Amino acid sequence: MATEIRIYRADTGSCNGCDIEVLASLDPKYGLGELNVSVAEHPEEANVLLVTGLVTKKTEPELKKIYEKIQEPRLVIAYGQCAVGMDVFYDSYNAAGAVDEVIPVNFYLPGCPPSPRATLFGVTAALGVEGFKEGEAIWTVPEAFRGKVEVDEEACIGCGACSEVCPPAAIDIEKKEDKMTLRFWHSKCIRCGSCKDICPSEAITMSDDYRLVTGDRQQLFSDITKDMQKCAECGQELVNTQIITFGLDAVGEHLREKYGELMKTDPKAWGKIAKPYADLKKECQTDIGLLCPTCRKTLDKIKKEKMLLLAINLEEFSA
Ligand code: SF4
Ligand code: SF4
Predict the structure, then answer these.
(1) CATH number of the domain enclosing 50
(2) Candidates 172, 204, 243: which one to mutate for ligand 2, based on the most atoms within 8 Å of Cβ?
(3) Which ligand 1 atom is the nearest neighbour of the CA of 184?
(4) How far apart are CA 3 and CA 8, in angstroms?
(5) Which stretch of 128-142, 159-173, 175-189, 231-245 has the lowest confidence by average pLDDT?
(6) By the 8 A CB rule, do 243 and 287 touch?
(7) Percent helix, strand, coil in the chain (nearest 5)?
(8) Count of alpha carbons within 13 Å of 202, Cβ hemisphere only?
(9) 38 domain-assigned
(10) pLDDT category of residue 121 using cuts at 50, 70 and 90
(11) CA–CA separation, 184 vs 194, rounded Å?
(12) Which residue, judged by its Cα, is nearest atom 5 of ligand 1?
């Protein structure tokens, strides 16, 4: 990259969130100016183009014209989630696409919006700006900062709830043979935290990692693979035993919280609750975890299970 970096910023359909962060990054306290990085007022004066926002059908021709005017080496940075992967607008009627669907993109800098930290790290790392240093006071990540999503493979029970609630459809679930792959696309994630909030097993955390700049957005993902459960009789896909165990443990915890006192004060009443629960748990961990409902019916288990569920009539004890 040339020793002098002149960046022209084009907004092709952003909400202005990214633009505000770009301006914040120019604050002298971050020292970008001292690193020979400046902002160009006209595309003809720039050698780097930084694009914010997804490209709308209206801005598409303008972006193409601007791109042609940028000087060599004419590097393009797609800045922020909309520019990188279209964000929540991925199926909008008015969108021409992410930036790389309209002009060539060299670097992707995700974030919704990228913080000044992410911006400085991303721009300097991408363009090879010398002299940039992390680790000073301004780089301390605030407590509530939401960076890259991380998933604990051990803790994940493979329920798929995170994928259901993700606004920009950044979590894919792929099922193949006896494996299920859960893929988190950091190029789409807007760090809303919904997946973390919904995850029943607390497998998801929002890390403080903002170093996500890349030259290949197809590489901006992380994934985990879980074993899938199949019916031992017919091979049909089943709710896996980890989910069943998780649910049963949650019920057990609830029973202990609500009726645990009975253990000391009225062991007989506690037994009426604890015994059917223990039976159901045993049953679930054997037959229900191994057989689909159809096969369970043929094995004449369903009636027994219903009886067990009826036996756990919590209302009977809540008066
Ligand atoms: S934080 Fe989770 S739910 Fe929100 S966009 Fe990212 S992956 Fe989706
Ligand atoms: S919500 Fe949590 S447990 Fe369920 S699939 Fe997602 S990460 Fe795994």
Answers:
(1) 3.40.50.12280
(2) 204
(3) 7
(4) 16
(5) 128-142
(6) no
(7) 40, 20, 40
(8) 0
(9) yes
(10) confident
(11) 13
(12) 189
Kindly give the distance from the C-alpha atom of residue 86 to the centroid of ligand 2, in angstroms, as a whole number.
24
With a 6 Å cutoff on the Cβ, whether 182 touches ligand 2 is yes
Q: Do 48 and 156 have their domain in common?
A: no
Ligand 2 centroid, distance to 313 Cα (angstroms): 29
pLDDT band of 305, cuts 50, 70, 90: low
Omega of the bond leading into 73 within 30 degrees of 0 (cis)? yes
State whether the beta carbon of 156 lies less than 6 angstroms from ligand 2: yes
Q: What pLDDT was estimated at residue 319? A: 46
Instruction: Single out the residue of 95, 87, 92, 4 nearest to residue 48, CA to CA.
Output: 4
- Ligand 1 geometric centre to CA of 79 (Å): 18
101 and 54 in a common domain: yes
- Ligand 1 atom with the shortest distance to the CA of 188: 5
76 and 188 both lie in a single domain: no
Ligand 2 lined by 162 (C-beta under 6 Å): yes
Q: CB within 6 Å of ligand 1 — which residues?
A: 149, 165-168, 170-171, 184, 189-195
203 lies in some domain: yes
Domain holding 72, by residue range, is 5-129
Q: Is the pLDDT reported for residue 299 higher than 70?
A: no
Ligand 2 site, residue 180, Cβ cutoff 6 A: no
pTM value is 0.74
**Going by CA atoms, what residue is nearest to atom 3 of ligand 1?**
166
CA of residue 204 to ligand 2 center, whole Å = 7
Looking at residue 168, which CATH number applies to its domain? 3.30.70.3270
> Of 78, 103, 122, whose CA–CA distance to 217 is shortest?
78
Helix axis angle, 267-283 to 241-259, nearest 10°:
180
| 308 pLDDT more than 80 | no
